[in-house]
Write a structure and sequence with these properties.
Layout (H helix, E strand, L loop, with lengths): L8 H22 L3 E4 L2 E4 H24 L4 H20 L3 H23 L4 H6 L7 H28 L2 H22 L1 H6 L5 H5 L1
Antiparallel strand pairs: 1-2
Helix pairs in contact: 1-2, 1-7, 2-3, 3-4, 4-6, 6-7
Subcellular location: Cell inner membrane
Family: Belongs to the YciB family.
Membrane topology: Multi-pass membrane protein
């Protein structure tokens, strides 16, 4: 018998946003300071990354132990976090952690585009249980999400190259979530228009 069970909303929130919140808190605490350790000086961004990477690994490990699975998106994000976060700390260079959102969004846009080219509903496979829709609805939403990911990748590049570390961190931790929420709200008419009837509706 499996011990896997659904996560409570509270634990799900901690696992999803806890590492990011810790990254933001450590950065804001140390953004004007330098930590001397092991014969080297590390700015606040590097220390925040040093906290963020192991917490992200821990959160995914807990998620896997509790549910028995990790989605493709979670695995992609975990690999990119470990690689680019590790390079950030190892080389003491914040450019790598700043590149992480760009890489993730380009990978996601590429995967969605490949799915469309192969006529595979990969977005529906991930979200279909939560948002049942027609094939045409998933195709339209996939195209829009590709546009979103490409736009966010471009926006991240502009901000990381032209703005301060503080501006980038706020964009990474708060701005991206806000933009994603606005995108989802803007696409609610599409989702409602192509929604499949629920089981309760079918029995009526």
């Amino acid at each position: 018998m499996s011990d896997h069970r659904p996560l409570s909303p509270g634990l799900r929130g901690v696992l999803d946003y806890g590492p990011l919140a810790a990254f933001l808190a450590v950065f804001l605490l140390l953004r004007h300071q330098t930590v001397h350790w092991g014969g080297a000086d590390y700015p606040g961004m590097i220390v925040a990354t040093l906290v963020f990477v192991p917490l992200t690994i821990l959160a995914n490990a807990v998620l896997w132990l509790r549910t028995g699975r990790l989605s493709a998106l979670q695995l992609i994000t975990l690999v990119v976090v470990v690689v680019f976060g590790g390079l950030t700390v190892w080389l003491n260079d914040p450019r790598f952690i700043k590149m992480k959102p760009t890489i993730i969004y380009l990978l996601l846009a590429g995967l969605l585009g490949l799915g469309l080219a192969l006529r595979r509903n990969w977005l529906g496979l991930v979200l279909g249980e939560v948002v049942p829709m027609t094939a045409e609805g998933w195709r339209r939403l996939t195209v829009r999400m590709m546009g979103l990911f490409l736009a966010l990748a471009l926006l991240n590049e502009v901000i990381r190259r032209t703005q301060s570390d503080t501006t980038w961190v706020l964009f990474k931790t708060v701005g991206l979530m806000a933009l994603t929420f606005v995108f989802l709200m803007a696409n609610m008419p599409l989702i409602r228009r192509h929604a499949l009837p629920q089981d309760d509706d079918r029995r009526r």
